[in-house]
Amino acid sequence: MKCWEITANNLSKAGWSWGCVSAIDSKGRTIWIVDAHRGDGKRFSVHAEEKLTAFLELERITHELALSPLLGDDPN
């Protein structure tokens, strides 16, 4: 199993639906766009030059969201 697949599996286990696409930017470079959403309306998208980097950034964001109520940072 590849590292990005492990991260994607972790997102799924945490209740997130996710998607991933690659695109070519205006300079001809490949970029990866990864997004995650869940039933409570939360949705996040990130892009990076490497697939794993995009997934790791998305995982970081979703972990911060999960921890924010515990740390008193919950905006709701």
Largest sheet: 3 strands, antiparallel
**What's the CATH architecture?**
2-Layer Sandwich
Tertiary shape: globular
Structural class by sheet pairing and helices: alpha+beta
| SS element count, helices | 2
Amount of beta strand = 25-35%
List keywords for this structure.
76 residues, alpha+beta, Double Stranded RNA Binding Domain, globular
Describe the overall structure.
This protein is 42% helix and 29% strand. α1 runs parallel beside α2. The chain is built from 2 helices and 3 strands; from the N terminus they run αβββα. A hairpin with a 5-residue loop joins β1 and β2. With 76 residues, the chain is α+β, with helices and mostly antiparallel strands.
SSE topology sketch:
Elements: H1 3-13, E1 17-24, E2 30-37, E3 43-48, H2 51-71
Antiparallel strand pairs: 1-2, 2-3
Helix pairs in contact: 1-2
Short summary:
The protein is α+β, with helices and mostly antiparallel strands and 76 residues long. It contains two helices and three strands. Strands 1-2-3 form a three-stranded antiparallel sheet, with helices on one face.
